[in-house]
Specification:
Blueprint: E1 16-17, E2 24-25, H1 26-41, H2 43-50, H3 79-88, E3 93-94, H4 96-101, H5 104-108, H6 112-116, E4 120-121, E5 125-127, E6 135-136, H7 139-151, E7 159-163, H8 169-182, H9 196-205, H10 215-220, E8 223-227, H11 231-234, H12 238-247, E9 251-255, H13 261-264, E10 265-267, H14 272-275, E11 280-281, E12 285-287, H15 294-311, H16 319-325, E13 326-327, H17 329-337, H18 341-348, H19 352-363, E14 368-372, H20 374-377, H21 382-395, E15 405-408, H22 415-420, H23 429-439, H24 451-459, E16 465-469, H25 473-476, H26 480-488, E17 492-497, E18 510-515, E19 524-525, E20 528-529, E21 532-535, E22 540-544, H27 557-569, H28 577-582, H29 584-594, H30 601-605, E23 611-612, H31 616-620, E24 630-631, E25 647-652, E26 657-658, E27 661-662, E28 672-673, E29 678-681, H32 683-689, E30 696-702, E31 708-718, E32 725-729, E33 754-760
Parallel strand pairs: 2-10, 3-4, 7-16, 8-9, 8-14, 9-12, 13-24, 14-15, 16-17, 17-18, 25-32, 29-31
Antiparallel strand pairs: 1-28, 5-6, 5-18, 10-11, 19-20, 21-22, 22-23, 25-33, 26-27, 29-32, 30-31, 30-33
Length: 770
């Protein structure tokens, strides 16, 4: 913990509030993005860079994983994508002089926003034991230090390799190979903290832990249900796809505790009506659900579908699909019919008339897609919720045919690709076997640490070296003081990064910052220009080529990982790490022999648009589950108990951030400006709790074991959220989430279901700066 540093972010102490917006994008979004881009990059650099984002001969946006449209050579980026690119391609630089001027203790008092605004890292930096300042270090010495620390380990499992979803496929594959050659599966990643529940639920029920739909399916679906997701901020290009859905006669149901501007109305700046007209109304039915009530909602919809089948036998359920392709229907049906209406109403907070209206829309639709994001995946009961959604789709055969299926919308641009490449603490036996056969060794079979497990292991002294490739682990993880103390118990922390963040300041006994190329940077080795590849949220793999001239000391993630591997494994390790670092085609040639679906990788990825990975449920209605069929599952009803005088808090992003990267201090769609320490609460709840609109309070989370956690100095903002629910931004509110408050199956931190009360404001000096 640290007090506020003078001049860090005084505006955050007094956020300004206006009315929320009821539409997203439009001309204002374009002008905002261009203004920020020019401020960071300048006019010519902005134009040259943004016109290459998400183009076949350009680079993949470092923001979200939403796929590109088939049409090319058009503007294919959103406001937040432009912000992400501007932050990466900025002309601002963080040189050794910056670290000489700022002690680590000083920087700890600065906010993540302030740190990110300083610019791109230019040199490898070392914080030695007992030092107060980082100092420059040569690449050669940095790798020697890494080699020394790995050599001092008593077990390979004393090392952890964390990966952010912005890491491309090639360095991700190299990193997991390094870990497994070392002898560990300690490969936690950001998926552990966001979509792990998706993978667990879909592997069990459908056999593949990824979405089953394409953009064409979205365009031509009769009904798209968007649950627990805010496309206007987190995946803005998705709104263009939903606009096509509406244009083709499809309809949209949105399910969310908060009304989201992007799902109300979309003003597409590439269409005349989005510039001078009213845009497109996207949502046909808004279900303002109580936080965590989605499982009850889909149980209720499923019960209504069963009743409709009773009234008109043979017209509602796809009996032939159920008989041929699924197992477990009879047990599931018996349980579903017993769903208690009062429990549904208590869990969802919805009137039954709205749930029945949603069921009628389902019955009127031949093809249905369900999209979801973190609003569904970050609860204790997330996996059962997603399994119930699969039940809902299986009932009418809405998997494996056009315009229908599951659509988990991933966050970071290659989080799905990293998992495909083997960034996983418990990979399949088939992956282990293929990796071992290709590289001539026995891959370790014992499970490694996921993100929460890694924090516990560091806390308990079982991990001594932490390597983070991208991301901001200290800010993204739950239980902030516990996470930070765990990192400080390491002997070495290594951060492979483009810009400063809090994880550079919460360090082990020694710490290294290794500056890396960004997506927009040219990557050139002695073998010539290189490119990397990524996988989008719908399973398409494509190339990414940067063109900006980088700072001379920067190295690519692939180069850094391969050099670390040589340092850690020694000169006798027979993997040709130097060849991989020099020519990524050599690395891709090995990937294609290990990872299914990557056959002829180098040739296929050079084609415009790349290639789509196989997906058995989508491609052939084949379900590679443990039963060989799609599985209906029985999922117990969950009604979250919130005591009187308390609220159920969810953490979320503002419009001026992506994950832990803060681009600015505004959330203009929600009407929050010049600050982030706000708590959004229903006006009726403000009155019932006896607090004053606009006053400041402390948020105190309550847990069954009696322990409490406090986040100080949040402004109470009246907002049209569901009754009994509240919302605050991450990472400021993640301090409220205990390390053990996780999904029962996926171990994902349950950031979306935190019981809180308000207490008198402790003042800005009590704020934990993150």
């Amino acid at each position: 913990m640290a007090g506020r540093a003078p001049g860090s972010d005084p505006a955050q102490d007094a956020p300004r509030i206006t009315e929320p917006s009821h539409h997203a994008v439009g001309v204002h979004a374009v002008t905002t993005a261009m203004r920020l881009a020019q401020r960071q990059m300048g006019v010519l650099r902005s134009a040259r860079t943004l016109l290459r984002v998400n183009q076949p001969d350009g680079f993949d946006c470092p923001g979200c994983a939403w796929p590109e449209e088939d049409r090319v050579h058009r503007a294919e980026f959103c406001e937040n994508g432009a912000k992400a690119v501007a932050e990466e391609a900025t002309r601002r630089r963080v040189t050794p002089a910056f670290f000489a001027a700022h002690a680590v203790a000083d920087l700890l008092g600065r906010s993540g926003y302030w740190l990110g605004q300083q610019g791109r890292l230019t040199h490898p930096m070392l914080l030695d034991e007992g030092a107060t300042h980082y100092v420059p270090v040569s690449w050669e010495r940095a790798y020697e230090i890494i080699g020394e620390e790995f050599a001092a380990l008593d077990s390979p499992d004393e090392a952890v390799f964390y990966t952010s979803g912005r890491t491309p496929n090639e360095p991700a594959f190299a990193l997991q190979l390094l870990a497994r050659r070392l002898g560990t599966n300690n490969l936690p990643d950001c998926a552990n903290m966001c979509h792990e529940a998706t993978g667990d639920a879909l592997v069990e029920t459908l056999g593949v832990g990824k979405g089953s739909v394409s953009l064409e399916d979205i365009h031509h679906a009769d009904l798209v249900i968007v649950a627990g997701q805010n496309p206007g901020t987190n995946h803005p290009r998705m709104m263009a796809a939903l606009e096509q859905t509406k244009g083709n006669g499809g309809r949209v149901i949105s399910v969310n505790p908060l009304p989201e501007a992007g799902l109300e109305r979309f003003k597409n700046p590439q269409r005349p009506r989005g510039v001078v007209g009213e845009g497109t109304k996207l949502t046909d039915l808004f279900l303002q659900i109580r936080t965590g009530g989605d499982l009850a909602l889909f149980r209720a919809l499923n019960q209504l579908l069963l009743r409709a089948e009773d009234e008109a036998p043979g017209t509602v359920l796809d009996r032939s699909f159920i008989a041929e392709h699924t197992l477990g229907f009879e047990d599931w049906e018996q349980d579903a019919r017993a769903t208690d209406r009062d429990d549904v109403l208590a869990a969802t907070g919805l009137p039954m008339e709205q749930i029945e209206a949603a069921a009628r829309m389902v019955l009127e639709s031949k093809s249905v897609i369900v999209c979801w994001a973190l609003g569904l995946t970050q609860h204790k009961h997330s996996v059962p919720t997603l399994r119930e959604i699969v039940n809902f789709l299986l009932l009418r055969g809405n998997v494996g045919r056009p315009g229908a299926g599951v659509c988990p919308v991933r966050g970071h641009s290659n989080v799905q690709g990293d998992r495909t490449m083997g960034i996983y603490e418990r990979p399949t036996e088939a992956f282990h076997r293929a990796l071992g056969e290709e590289f001539g060794f026995t891959s370790p079979r014992h499970h490694g640490y996921d993100s929460v497990g890694a924090i516990k292991a560091m806390r308990d002294g079982k991990v001594k070296v932490f390597v983070g490739m991208g991301g901001n682990f200290a800010a993204a993880a739950p239980d902030t003081p516990v996470t930070e103390e765990a990192l400080r118990r390491c002997s070495l922390t290594v951060q492979i990064s483009t810009k400063p963040n809090r994880s550079h300041l919460v360090t082990g006994r020694r710490a290294l910052i290794l500056p890396t190329l960004g997506r927009s940077d040219e990557d050139r080795t002695q073998a010539g220009p290189q490119f990397v590849t990524v996988e989008d949220s719908m399973g398409r793999v494509h190339a990414s080529r940067g063109r900006l001239k980088p700072e001379p000391m920067l190295r690519s993630e692939t180069s850094i990982v391969c050099a670390m591997a040589r340092a850690a494994l020694g000169p006798d390790d027979d993997v040709p790490w130097e060849e991989f670092a020099a020519d990524y085609d050599r690395l891709r040639g090995r990937i294609e022999r290990v990872v299914p679906g990557f056959e002829d990788f180098n040739a296929r990825v050079r084609r415009p648009g790349g290639f789509v990975l196989p997906h058995a449920p989508r491609d052939a209605r084949s379900f590679p589950t443990h039963t060989g069929k799609a599985n209906f599952t029985v999922n117990d009803m969950v009604v979250l108990d919130v005591p009187e005088g308390r609220l159920l808090l969810q953490t979320l992003r503002s419009h001026d951030q992506y994950n832990t990267t803060i681009y600015g201090l505004d959330d203009r769609y929600r009407g929050v400006h010049d600050g982030r320490r706000v708590v959004l609460v229903s006006p009726a709840d403000i009155t019932a709790l006896g607090v004053t609109e606009g006053s400041f309070v402390d948020l105190v989370s309550e847990w069954p074991d009696g322990r409490e956690r406090r986040a100080a100095h949040f402004k109470v903002v009246p907002y049209p959220t569901a009754r009994g629910c509240a919302a605050a931004y991450m990472p400021e509110a993640t301090v409220l989430v205990p390390l053990d408050h996780t999904s029962d199956i996926s171990n994902t931190p349950a950031y979306k279901s935190v019981v809180i009360r308000f207490e008198p404001d402790s003042g800005p000096d009590a704020v934990v700066v993150i």
